[in-house]
Amino acid sequence: MSVLAGVIAVLEPPAGVSARHVRSEPAIVRWTIIGVSLAFLTMFLVMPLAVVFMQAFARGIGPYLGALTHPDALAAIWLTLLVAAISVSLNLAFGLIAAWAIAKFEFPGKGFLITLIDLPFSISPVISGLVFVLLFGAQGFFGAYLQEHDIKIIFALPGIVLATLLVTFPFVARELIPLMKEQGTQDEEAAISLGASGLQTFFRVTLPNVKWALLYGVLLCNARAMGEFGAVSVVSGHIRGETNTMPLHIEILYNEYQFMASFAVASVLALLALLTLIAKAILECAMEHA
Amino acid sequence: MTASSDVAGTADPHFPPVGAWRKTKRQPSAIPGFGLTLGLTLSWLALIVLIPVAGLFLKSTELSFDQFWSIVTSRRSLHAFQVSFGLSLLAAAINLVFGVLIVWTLVRYEFPGRRVFDAIIDIPFALPTAVAGIALTTLFAENGWLGGLLAPFGVKVSFTPLGILMALIFIGLPFVVRTVQPVLLDLESELEEAAMTLGANRWQVFTKVIVPIIGPALLTGFALAFARAVGEYGSVIFIAGNLPNVSEIAPLLIVIRLEEFKYADATALAVVMLLVSFTLLLAINRLQQWSETRTGRD
């Protein structure tokens, strides 16, 4: 008995020492780790963001609004919205279709298909633009044909949309696939056996089940679509007022030493990024409680 | 697709063995739309991703092997690869060390503003690379907030390879943090307590108990940060200075060759970068499976 009591005494933490204390470090170590971490985050994440807004408003609100309402800036904002609207809705449709095929059915090669869908994440943005120049550029595989029929893809809107589509390809699908796999097929099977059609089942059963994850994927897809630089830069041709998206317009202004105007346009995208992060935090909350 | 089913079957732990597939084939699913949705998925995938990427490889076959080799081993190309791969490795290593400290801080400690710091980790995911590029350049310029602190010591950051390193650290950080964080969060306290009762000190618990458990996640995060940094373009070109043979990254060299209408050169360089990316993707897939089986996470 006394041996057992001894063992228990060893296993139980001494009075006043909670489990939390056993897993913690001495105060000096703790505060050093916290200090170094927060200094690193402040230096690399907080300060760059602060710089954007400081520089954008360096000369006050008037010049800031002037930079944003310049015709070239407005054209860039419009083009960015247009490209994002097209590519996000196409990727939204693809994501839902791909997730349905992958999550609700068993077939050989599924793992390989998922890897292929994720592939664009590991391709350099520059290469994502280059592949379309090689296909549709003047020297490309279809270059001569396109010129004959006077169809412009590269240095025009279709090229920018194609490059953005490739870069943002996996965003919606990869949010939906794991969730729809986890939810299984019972709900859908029940709906079908009760006489619902395939489309009814999809819109009334599947879609409500995945709405938060879908919104989350669309949000990330949109942030990337509006902010894409490398891929779009290769296919756009940088024609002012015509094929310049906001990130490309930022580059042009910056290289012309119009720093304030450049940061003014950048601040709009930075604000969008902040709103995306806030919406993401809210959606994560919603998904946890779903 | 059928030829690859064996490979995919072993690669995906959720993929049923061949026998199970035969079973599902015998009992067709009640849910409609398989043929249609899979057909659309494969067509769209081919149109947007597979055919364009295949076109790049096809274009590179127009070069003889000697031509290809002389392009990718030219002095300027080799320097660009060296800058891209070398600095990406260094940035991923720095992110690994600080990433662990940051995850530890966020998971284990309570302090004011913890949730805000947790949320801002994703800034590099959400902030467009061009915006990050001009912001970091201004921050680390000689008259910038941080560059000004370093200038008296003769340290120049913006427009040097050190600037490239800063940009690559910025874009890689969330990969390490977001890969390691859930694993450390799930770590059961009993393991550490058992080690403590057996006489281990905190450092021993960390190196002998915690690191082996979060090890696969650490490696995955490192590989993800490295893979992203190798191909990064937007955030780097503003701060790099872009001096050939000194601070010129491989993606920028591709763009330069393209603007000179040297499509063959751009293609050859892109093929090398793509092959590296594919190798990394395979390695990351393996690492993630290892991490999942090691920690029992899904």
Q: What is the CATH class name of the largest domain in chain A?
A: Mainly Alpha
Give the full name of the CATH homologous superfamily of the largest domain in chain A: MetI-like
| Overall CATH class of the largest domain in chain B | Mainly Alpha
Tally of strands of chain A: 0
Radius of gyration of chain A: 26 Å
- Number of self-contained structural domains of chain A: 2
Q: Give Rg of chain B in angstroms.
A: 23 Å
Biggest chain pair interface:
A-B, 106 and 104 residues
Counting copies of identical and different chains, the oligomeric state is heterodimer
Termini Cα gap of chain A:
51 Å
Describe the protein's architecture and organization:
The complex is a heterodimer of chains A (290) and B (298). Chain A has 290 residues and is an all-alpha fold. Chain A has helices at residues 2-11, 19-22, 27-56, 61-68, 71-104, 110-118, 125-136, 143-148, 157-167, 171-183, 186-193, 198-209, 211-227, 230-236, 246-255, 259-289. The longest helix of chain A has 34 residues, at 71-104. Chain B has helices at residues 5-11, 18-26, 34-60, 65-72, 75-108, 114-120, 123-126, 129-140, 147-150, 161-186, 189-197, 202-231, 234-240, 250-259, 263-295. In chain B, 42% of the residues are buried. In chain B, helix 8 (129-140) crosses helix 10 and helix 11 (189-197) crosses helix 12 (202-231). Chain B contains 15 helices and no strands. Chain B has two domains: 5-60, no CATH class; 65-295, MetI-like fold, CATH 1.10.3720. The chains are: A mainly alpha (290), B mainly alpha (298). At the A-B interface, helix 3, helix 5, helix 6, helix 7 and helix 9 of A face helix 1, helix 2, helix 3, helix 5 and helix 6 of B.
Condensed summary:
The complex is a heterodimer of chains A (290) and B (298). By secondary structure, chain A is mostly helical.
Helix and strand topology:
The complex is a heterodimer of chains A (290) and B (298).
Chain A: H1 2-11, H2 19-22, H3 27-56, H4 61-68, H5 71-104, H6 110-118, H7 125-136, H8 143-148, H9 157-167, H10 171-183, H11 186-193, H12 198-209, H13 211-227, H14 230-236, H15 246-255, H16 259-289
Helix pairs in contact in A: 3-16, 4-16, 5-9, 5-10, 5-13, 7-9, 7-14, 9-14, 10-13, 11-12, 13-16, 15-16
Chain B: H1 5-11, H2 18-26, H3 34-60, H4 65-72, H5 75-108, H6 114-120, H7 123-126, H8 129-140, H9 147-150, H10 161-186, H11 189-197, H12 202-231, H13 234-240, H14 250-259, H15 263-295
Helix pairs in contact in B: 3-15, 5-10, 5-12, 8-10, 8-13, 10-12, 10-13, 11-12, 12-15, 14-15
